[in-house]
Amino acid sequence: MPIFLTNNYPSSALQINTRLIIACAEQLLDLCDMAGYSLSILLIDDREMTDLNNRYRGKNVPTNVLSFPFLDGADDTISSLPIRELGDIIISVDTAGREATASRQTLAERLAWLITHGLLHLLGYDHERSAPDAALMQDKENELISRLQLNRSKPMTLLAINVDHIATIRQARGTIEPDPVTAAALCELAGASGIVVHLREDRRHIQDRDVRLLRQTVKTRLNLEMGAAKEIIDIALDIKPDMVTLVPEKRLELTTEGGLNVTGQKKKLAGTIEQMAKAGIPVSLFIDPDFKQIKASHDIGATFVEIHTGRYCDAVSEKERDCEFHLIASAAQEADRLGLQVNAGHGLDYRTTARIAALDIIGELSIGHAVIARAVFIGLEQAVREMLDIIRFARHGFY
Protein backbone atom coordinates (compact mmCIF):
# COMPACT_ATOMS: atom_id res chain seq x y z
CA MET A 1 0.00 0.00 0.00
CA PRO A 2 1.22 3.55 -0.63
CA ILE A 3 2.92 6.10 1.55
CA PHE A 4 1.13 9.45 1.30
CA LEU A 5 3.69 12.20 1.95
CA THR A 6 2.64 15.85 2.12
CA ASN A 7 5.37 18.47 2.52
CA ASN A 8 3.88 21.67 3.93
CA TYR A 9 7.18 22.89 5.34
CA PRO A 10 7.44 26.47 4.06
CA SER A 11 11.16 27.14 4.38
CA SER A 12 13.83 26.51 1.75
CA ALA A 13 16.59 26.60 4.38
CA LEU A 14 16.37 22.82 4.84
CA GLN A 15 16.30 20.64 1.73
CA ILE A 16 14.06 17.65 2.38
CA ASN A 17 14.68 14.42 0.52
CA THR A 18 11.10 13.22 0.15
CA ARG A 19 12.09 10.11 -1.81
CA LEU A 20 14.35 9.00 1.04
CA ILE A 21 11.54 9.58 3.56
CA ILE A 22 9.14 7.45 1.52
CA ALA A 23 11.77 4.70 1.19
CA CYS A 24 12.34 4.82 4.95
CA ALA A 25 8.61 4.53 5.69
CA GLU A 26 8.21 1.64 3.25
CA GLN A 27 11.09 -0.22 4.89
CA LEU A 28 9.60 0.35 8.35
CA LEU A 29 6.19 -0.98 7.32
CA ASP A 30 7.87 -4.06 5.90
CA LEU A 31 9.96 -4.57 9.05
CA CYS A 32 6.81 -4.31 11.18
CA ASP A 33 4.89 -6.78 8.94
CA MET A 34 2.52 -3.99 7.94
CA ALA A 35 3.45 -3.73 4.26
CA GLY A 36 -0.20 -4.06 3.23
CA TYR A 37 -1.20 -0.89 5.05
CA SER A 38 -1.26 2.76 3.98
CA LEU A 39 0.46 5.47 5.98
CA SER A 40 0.19 9.27 5.77
CA ILE A 41 3.11 11.56 6.66
CA LEU A 42 2.79 15.33 6.96
CA LEU A 43 5.81 17.67 7.25
CA ILE A 44 5.13 21.07 8.83
CA ASP A 45 6.86 23.87 10.75
CA ASP A 46 6.84 24.74 14.46
CA ARG A 47 3.99 27.23 14.09
CA GLU A 48 1.61 24.66 12.62
CA MET A 49 2.75 22.02 15.11
CA THR A 50 2.00 24.41 17.98
CA ASP A 51 -1.51 24.92 16.58
CA LEU A 52 -2.06 21.14 16.48
CA ASN A 53 -0.76 20.69 20.02
CA ASN A 54 -3.10 23.45 21.22
CA ARG A 55 -6.08 21.90 19.51
CA TYR A 56 -5.59 18.25 20.40
CA ARG A 57 -3.36 18.19 23.51
CA GLY A 58 -3.91 21.53 25.22
CA LYS A 59 -0.21 22.41 24.97
CA ASN A 60 1.00 25.70 23.53
CA VAL A 61 4.38 24.36 22.34
CA PRO A 62 5.75 22.61 19.24
CA THR A 63 6.78 18.97 19.54
CA ASN A 64 8.82 16.90 17.15
CA VAL A 65 6.15 14.35 16.13
CA LEU A 66 2.46 13.61 16.57
CA SER A 67 0.65 10.40 15.64
CA PHE A 68 -3.05 10.02 14.92
CA PRO A 69 -4.20 6.39 14.50
CA PHE A 70 -6.82 6.02 11.80
CA LEU A 71 -9.33 4.25 14.05
CA ASP A 72 -9.01 6.60 17.04
CA GLY A 73 -12.51 7.87 17.78
CA ALA A 74 -14.02 5.91 14.88
CA ASP A 75 -17.39 4.23 15.41
CA ASP A 76 -17.92 0.51 15.04
CA THR A 77 -19.12 0.79 11.44
CA ILE A 78 -15.75 2.22 10.36
CA SER A 79 -13.66 -0.24 12.38
CA SER A 80 -15.51 -3.18 10.87
CA LEU A 81 -14.72 -2.14 7.30
CA PRO A 82 -11.72 -3.74 5.52
CA ILE A 83 -9.72 -0.48 5.49
CA ARG A 84 -5.98 -1.02 5.75
CA GLU A 85 -4.94 2.44 6.88
CA LEU A 86 -2.68 3.02 9.88
CA GLY A 87 -3.09 6.75 10.32
CA ASP A 88 -1.08 9.97 10.22
CA ILE A 89 2.42 10.88 11.37
CA ILE A 90 2.99 14.64 11.62
CA ILE A 91 6.54 15.98 11.99
CA SER A 92 7.82 19.48 12.68
CA VAL A 93 10.86 19.92 10.44
CA ASP A 94 11.98 22.94 12.49
CA THR A 95 12.21 20.85 15.66
CA ALA A 96 13.68 17.89 13.78
CA GLY A 97 16.43 20.13 12.40
CA ARG A 98 17.35 21.44 15.86
CA GLU A 99 17.37 17.94 17.31
CA ALA A 100 19.51 16.65 14.43
CA THR A 101 22.12 19.31 15.12
CA ALA A 102 22.10 18.66 18.87
CA SER A 103 22.46 14.89 18.40
CA ARG A 104 25.03 15.19 15.56
CA GLN A 105 22.75 13.54 13.05
CA THR A 106 21.77 14.46 9.53
CA LEU A 107 18.23 15.73 9.03
CA ALA A 108 17.39 12.52 7.16
CA GLU A 109 18.60 10.40 10.08
CA ARG A 110 16.50 12.41 12.53
CA LEU A 111 13.42 12.22 10.31
CA ALA A 112 13.90 8.45 10.08
CA TRP A 113 13.88 8.22 13.88
CA LEU A 114 10.76 10.39 14.15
CA ILE A 115 8.92 8.30 11.55
CA THR A 116 9.91 5.16 13.48
CA HIS A 117 8.72 6.70 16.75
CA GLY A 118 5.45 7.88 15.20
CA LEU A 119 4.78 4.54 13.53
CA LEU A 120 5.22 2.65 16.79
CA HIS A 121 2.63 4.94 18.39
CA LEU A 122 0.25 4.06 15.55
CA LEU A 123 0.91 0.38 16.28
CA GLY A 124 -0.05 0.74 19.93
CA TYR A 125 3.27 1.41 21.66
CA ASP A 126 3.17 4.22 24.23
CA HIS A 127 6.22 5.39 26.19
CA GLU A 128 4.03 7.65 28.37
CA ARG A 129 1.94 4.77 29.74
CA SER A 130 4.53 3.33 32.12
CA ALA A 131 8.27 2.79 32.57
CA PRO A 132 8.11 -0.81 31.22
CA ASP A 133 6.15 0.43 28.19
CA ALA A 134 8.75 3.16 27.60
CA ALA A 135 11.57 0.59 27.74
CA LEU A 136 9.68 -1.73 25.39
CA MET A 137 9.11 1.08 22.88
CA GLN A 138 12.73 2.23 23.03
CA ASP A 139 14.00 -1.30 22.45
CA LYS A 140 11.73 -1.64 19.42
CA GLU A 141 12.85 1.75 18.08
CA ASN A 142 16.52 0.78 18.39
CA GLU A 143 15.87 -2.53 16.66
CA LEU A 144 14.08 -0.92 13.71
CA ILE A 145 16.62 1.90 13.30
CA SER A 146 19.48 -0.61 13.30
CA ARG A 147 17.77 -2.54 10.48
CA LEU A 148 17.01 0.47 8.29
CA GLN A 149 19.19 0.73 5.19
CA LEU A 150 19.37 4.39 4.24
CA ASN A 151 23.04 4.66 3.27
CA ARG A 152 25.84 2.60 1.77
CA SER A 153 28.36 2.95 4.57
CA LYS A 154 32.00 3.35 3.57
CA PRO A 155 34.99 2.43 5.75
CA MET A 156 36.52 5.91 5.89
CA THR A 157 36.39 9.13 3.94
CA LEU A 158 39.53 9.57 1.84
CA LEU A 159 41.61 12.73 1.61
CA ALA A 160 42.81 14.20 -1.68
CA ILE A 161 45.16 17.18 -1.48
CA ASN A 162 44.98 20.05 -3.96
CA VAL A 163 48.51 21.38 -4.55
CA ASP A 164 47.51 24.36 -6.72
CA HIS A 165 48.77 26.89 -4.20
CA ILE A 166 52.24 25.44 -4.15
CA ALA A 167 52.28 26.48 -7.81
CA THR A 168 50.74 29.85 -6.87
CA ILE A 169 53.77 30.63 -4.72
CA ARG A 170 56.12 29.56 -7.50
CA GLN A 171 54.35 31.66 -10.12
CA ALA A 172 54.47 34.73 -7.87
CA ARG A 173 58.23 34.89 -8.48
CA GLY A 174 58.27 33.27 -11.91
CA THR A 175 60.86 30.74 -10.77
CA ILE A 176 60.98 26.96 -10.41
CA GLU A 177 60.35 26.67 -6.67
CA PRO A 178 58.42 25.40 -4.84
CA ASP A 179 57.56 22.49 -7.11
CA PRO A 180 53.98 21.11 -6.92
CA VAL A 181 55.26 17.76 -8.20
CA THR A 182 57.51 17.42 -5.15
CA ALA A 183 54.66 18.61 -2.93
CA ALA A 184 52.38 15.91 -4.34
CA ALA A 185 54.94 13.23 -3.48
CA LEU A 186 55.20 14.50 0.11
CA CYS A 187 51.39 14.49 0.44
CA GLU A 188 51.25 10.88 -0.70
CA LEU A 189 54.01 9.89 1.72
CA ALA A 190 51.95 11.47 4.51
CA GLY A 191 48.91 9.35 3.62
CA ALA A 192 46.89 11.33 1.07
CA SER A 193 44.77 9.11 -1.16
CA GLY A 194 44.86 11.41 -4.15
CA ILE A 195 46.29 14.57 -5.69
CA VAL A 196 44.14 17.31 -7.20
CA VAL A 197 45.26 20.07 -9.57
CA HIS A 198 43.24 22.64 -11.50
CA LEU A 199 44.64 23.43 -14.95
CA ARG A 200 43.06 26.80 -15.67
CA GLU A 201 42.84 28.42 -19.08
CA ASP A 202 44.86 31.40 -17.80
CA ARG A 203 47.52 29.08 -16.25
CA ARG A 204 47.64 31.24 -13.13
CA HIS A 205 49.18 28.44 -11.04
CA ILE A 206 49.38 24.86 -12.38
CA GLN A 207 51.19 24.62 -15.74
CA ASP A 208 51.00 22.02 -18.51
CA ARG A 209 54.43 20.73 -17.45
CA ASP A 210 53.13 20.11 -13.91
CA VAL A 211 50.19 18.03 -15.08
CA ARG A 212 52.33 15.89 -17.37
CA LEU A 213 54.92 15.21 -14.67
CA LEU A 214 52.23 14.50 -12.09
CA ARG A 215 50.67 11.97 -14.44
CA GLN A 216 54.02 10.15 -14.46
CA THR A 217 54.76 10.41 -10.74
CA VAL A 218 51.51 10.28 -8.74
CA LYS A 219 51.17 6.85 -7.14
CA THR A 220 47.63 7.21 -5.77
CA ARG A 221 45.12 8.97 -7.99
CA LEU A 222 45.41 12.14 -10.07
CA ASN A 223 42.24 14.22 -10.27
CA LEU A 224 42.41 16.98 -12.91
CA GLU A 225 40.02 19.85 -12.24
CA MET A 226 39.17 21.74 -15.41
CA GLY A 227 36.66 23.84 -17.26
CA ALA A 228 34.97 22.31 -20.28
CA ALA A 229 37.17 24.24 -22.75
CA LYS A 230 38.43 22.49 -25.89
CA GLU A 231 42.13 23.19 -25.22
CA ILE A 232 41.95 21.72 -21.69
CA ILE A 233 39.81 18.80 -22.84
CA ASP A 234 42.45 17.91 -25.42
CA ILE A 235 45.18 17.95 -22.76
CA ALA A 236 43.10 15.69 -20.48
CA LEU A 237 42.46 13.23 -23.30
CA ASP A 238 46.19 13.20 -24.04
CA ILE A 239 47.56 12.64 -20.53
CA LYS A 240 44.60 10.56 -19.22
CA PRO A 241 44.36 11.44 -15.51
CA ASP A 242 42.65 8.95 -13.22
CA MET A 243 39.59 11.20 -13.21
CA VAL A 244 38.57 14.71 -14.18
CA THR A 245 36.36 17.09 -12.23
CA LEU A 246 34.53 19.63 -14.35
CA VAL A 247 34.23 22.98 -12.60
CA PRO A 248 32.95 26.44 -13.56
CA GLU A 249 35.74 28.85 -14.41
CA LYS A 250 35.72 32.66 -14.55
CA ARG A 251 38.72 34.76 -15.51
CA LEU A 252 38.46 37.27 -12.66
CA GLU A 253 37.58 34.95 -9.77
CA LEU A 254 40.15 34.32 -7.03
CA THR A 255 39.01 30.73 -6.72
CA THR A 256 36.03 28.67 -7.88
CA GLU A 257 32.99 30.56 -6.60
CA GLY A 258 30.20 28.00 -6.90
CA GLY A 259 29.02 24.82 -8.51
CA LEU A 260 28.36 24.09 -12.16
CA ASN A 261 24.98 24.96 -13.61
CA VAL A 262 24.50 21.46 -15.00
CA THR A 263 20.81 21.98 -15.75
CA GLY A 264 21.65 24.97 -17.94
CA GLN A 265 24.41 23.34 -20.01
CA LYS A 266 23.51 19.67 -20.16
CA LYS A 267 24.34 19.29 -23.86
CA LYS A 268 27.84 20.75 -23.55
CA LEU A 269 28.72 18.84 -20.40
CA ALA A 270 27.25 15.60 -21.74
CA GLY A 271 29.50 15.91 -24.79
CA THR A 272 32.58 16.33 -22.59
CA ILE A 273 31.58 13.36 -20.44
CA GLU A 274 31.12 11.24 -23.56
CA GLN A 275 34.59 12.18 -24.83
CA MET A 276 36.15 11.28 -21.48
CA ALA A 277 34.21 8.02 -21.27
CA LYS A 278 35.58 6.92 -24.65
CA ALA A 279 39.08 7.50 -23.25
CA GLY A 280 38.27 5.56 -20.07
CA ILE A 281 38.33 8.66 -17.82
CA PRO A 282 35.56 8.92 -15.20
CA VAL A 283 34.04 12.38 -14.73
CA SER A 284 32.98 14.21 -11.58
CA LEU A 285 30.84 17.34 -11.69
CA PHE A 286 31.43 20.04 -9.08
CA ILE A 287 27.93 21.13 -8.04
CA ASP A 288 26.08 22.99 -5.33
CA PRO A 289 24.02 20.83 -2.92
CA ASP A 290 20.89 21.07 -5.04
CA PHE A 291 18.62 18.18 -6.07
CA LYS A 292 18.06 19.56 -9.60
CA GLN A 293 21.81 19.70 -10.25
CA ILE A 294 22.23 16.17 -8.88
CA LYS A 295 19.51 14.77 -11.12
CA ALA A 296 20.95 16.56 -14.15
CA SER A 297 24.43 15.18 -13.33
CA HIS A 298 23.00 11.68 -13.23
CA ASP A 299 21.02 12.20 -16.44
CA ILE A 300 24.09 13.20 -18.49
CA GLY A 301 26.23 10.28 -17.35
CA ALA A 302 28.55 11.61 -14.63
CA THR A 303 30.23 8.97 -12.47
CA PHE A 304 30.84 11.28 -9.50
CA VAL A 305 29.56 14.51 -8.09
CA GLU A 306 31.67 16.71 -5.84
CA ILE A 307 29.41 18.70 -3.57
CA HIS A 308 30.43 22.31 -3.06
CA THR A 309 30.99 22.95 0.67
CA GLY A 310 31.89 26.64 0.36
CA ARG A 311 28.71 28.13 1.81
CA TYR A 312 28.92 25.74 4.77
CA CYS A 313 32.51 26.81 5.45
CA ASP A 314 31.76 30.52 5.01
CA ALA A 315 28.67 30.55 7.26
CA VAL A 316 28.75 33.42 9.75
CA SER A 317 26.50 31.82 12.40
CA GLU A 318 25.99 28.34 13.81
CA LYS A 319 22.37 28.35 12.63
CA GLU A 320 23.43 29.16 9.07
CA ARG A 321 26.17 26.52 9.18
CA ASP A 322 23.72 23.91 10.47
CA CYS A 323 21.35 24.66 7.59
CA GLU A 324 24.16 24.40 5.04
CA PHE A 325 25.33 21.13 6.58
CA HIS A 326 21.88 19.60 6.26
CA LEU A 327 21.70 20.74 2.63
CA ILE A 328 24.99 18.95 1.94
CA ALA A 329 23.89 15.81 3.77
CA SER A 330 20.55 15.68 1.93
CA ALA A 331 22.23 16.25 -1.42
CA ALA A 332 24.77 13.51 -0.74
CA GLN A 333 22.00 11.06 0.14
CA GLU A 334 20.08 11.91 -3.03
CA ALA A 335 23.18 11.49 -5.20
CA ASP A 336 23.90 8.16 -3.53
CA ARG A 337 20.30 7.05 -4.11
CA LEU A 338 20.73 7.74 -7.83
CA GLY A 339 23.92 5.67 -7.93
CA LEU A 340 26.41 8.53 -8.16
CA GLN A 341 29.65 8.37 -6.20
CA VAL A 342 29.89 11.35 -3.87
CA ASN A 343 32.87 13.54 -3.01
CA ALA A 344 32.93 16.98 -1.39
CA GLY A 345 35.19 19.98 -1.14
CA HIS A 346 35.92 23.70 -1.25
CA GLY A 347 36.86 25.86 1.70
CA LEU A 348 37.21 22.99 4.17
CA ASP A 349 39.73 23.62 6.94
CA TYR A 350 40.79 22.21 10.31
CA ARG A 351 37.60 23.49 11.98
CA THR A 352 34.97 22.61 9.39
CA THR A 353 36.15 19.29 7.94
CA ALA A 354 35.18 16.82 10.66
CA ARG A 355 31.42 17.22 10.38
CA ILE A 356 31.48 16.62 6.63
CA ALA A 357 33.92 13.71 7.00
CA ALA A 358 31.48 12.07 9.43
CA LEU A 359 28.91 11.63 6.63
CA ASP A 360 29.08 7.97 5.60
CA ILE A 361 28.18 8.67 1.97
CA ILE A 362 31.08 11.04 1.28
CA GLY A 363 33.84 9.01 -0.36
CA GLU A 364 36.57 11.64 -0.59
CA LEU A 365 37.27 15.20 0.50
CA SER A 366 39.31 17.55 -1.68
CA ILE A 367 41.24 20.02 0.48
CA GLY A 368 43.99 22.37 -0.58
CA HIS A 369 44.31 25.90 0.75
CA ALA A 370 43.95 25.07 4.45
CA VAL A 371 46.58 22.31 4.31
CA ILE A 372 49.06 24.40 2.31
CA ALA A 373 48.54 27.37 4.67
CA ARG A 374 49.21 25.20 7.74
CA ALA A 375 52.22 23.66 6.04
CA VAL A 376 53.90 27.07 6.06
CA PHE A 377 54.20 26.72 9.84
CA ILE A 378 54.54 22.98 10.51
CA GLY A 379 55.57 21.36 7.23
CA LEU A 380 53.52 19.72 4.51
CA GLU A 381 53.66 16.11 5.71
CA GLN A 382 52.57 17.03 9.24
CA ALA A 383 49.77 19.25 7.91
CA VAL A 384 48.42 16.33 5.85
CA ARG A 385 48.68 13.93 8.79
CA GLU A 386 46.77 16.31 11.06
CA MET A 387 43.94 16.58 8.53
CA LEU A 388 43.85 12.78 8.19
CA ASP A 389 43.55 12.46 11.96
CA ILE A 390 40.54 14.80 11.94
CA ILE A 391 38.87 12.66 9.26
CA ARG A 392 39.60 9.40 11.07
CA PHE A 393 38.26 10.63 14.41
CA ALA A 394 35.19 12.15 12.74
CA ARG A 395 34.01 8.72 11.61
CA HIS A 396 33.93 7.67 15.27
CA GLY A 397 31.87 10.65 16.34
CA PHE A 398 34.67 12.88 17.63
CA TYR A 399 34.05 16.33 16.16
Fold and architecture overview:
The longest helix is centred in the last third of the chain and has 20 residues, at 318-337. α11 (266-278) links the parallel β8 (243-246) and β9. It contains 17 helices and 12 strands. The chain is elongated and about 80 Å long. The chain has an 8-stranded parallel barrel with strand order 5-6-7-8-9-10-11-12, surrounded by 8 helices. 43% of the residues are buried. The model has no long low-confidence stretch (mean pLDDT 90). The chain has helices at 18-31, 46-57, 76-79, 93-102, 107-122, 131-147, 164-173, 180-189, 208-217, 230-239, 266-278, 291-299, 310-314, 318-337, 353-357, 369-378, 380-394; strands at residues 3-7, 38-44, 65-69, 85-92, 158-162, 194-198, 222-226, 243-246, 283-287, 304-308, 341-345, 364-367. The chain folds into 2 domains: 3-147, Collagenase (Catalytic Domain), CATH 3.40.390.30; 158-394, TIM Barrel (Alpha-Beta Barrel). It is of the alpha/beta class.
End-to-end distance: 41 Å
Largest sheet: 8 strands, parallel, barrel
Helix content: 40-55%
Beta strands, count: 12
Number of domains: 2
Work out the radius of gyration: 25 Å
* Number of alpha- plus pi-helical segments: 17
Write the layout of secondary structure elements.
Blueprint: E1 3-7, H1 18-31, E2 38-44, H2 46-57, E3 65-69, H3 76-79, E4 85-92, H4 93-102, H5 107-122, H6 131-147, E5 158-162, H7 164-173, H8 180-189, E6 194-198, H9 208-217, E7 222-226, H10 230-239, E8 243-246, H11 266-278, E9 283-287, H12 291-299, E10 304-308, H13 310-314, H14 318-337, E11 341-345, H15 353-357, E12 364-367, H16 369-378, H17 380-394
Parallel strand pairs: 1-2, 2-4, 5-6, 5-12, 6-7, 7-8, 8-9, 9-10, 10-11, 11-12
Antiparallel strand pairs: 3-4
Helix pairs in contact: 1-5, 4-5, 5-6, 8-9, 16-17
